Amino acid sequence: MTSALTHLGAQGEANMVDVGDKEETTRTAIAEGFVSMQPETLKTILAGNAKKGDVLGTARIAGIMAAKKTHELIPLCHPLLLTKISVDIEPDHALPGLKVTALARVTGKTGVEMEALTAASVACLTIYDMAKAVDRAMLISGIRLVEKTGGKSGDYKVGA
Known about the structure:
With 160 residues, the protein is an alpha+beta fold. Helices cover 29% and strands 29% of the residues.
């Protein structure tokens, strides 16, 4: 693992990395996040009874849309032609709350970690927004990269 920050120039100024000479490869990233909440809030969401509507469906779409706009939200991210983005949301009754998993894929010259992380983050934020009327104490946590494949830096998997 290299310790050099690739987005910094010789004088420490921020710059966008030139990926022009890199090989195109298929790259995949998986990110996750959690929204902890009161058990009653989870029941309301799962029953589809939230006042703002379909929390899970809306959060899924918000995450997908966010992944497609990552380069507009995160400075120095390259715009990517994503070939796949999915957001899965599962109840975790032990939490209690919801687990969000986002997968992003591209065939290109740079990775999709930021797109997966953005999708998971925005899906979690959307869950909070849509259910905050009944539970302002919800907690968003555990946003992290779980796995990535492809590219020069090789593969990564949490715990491996």
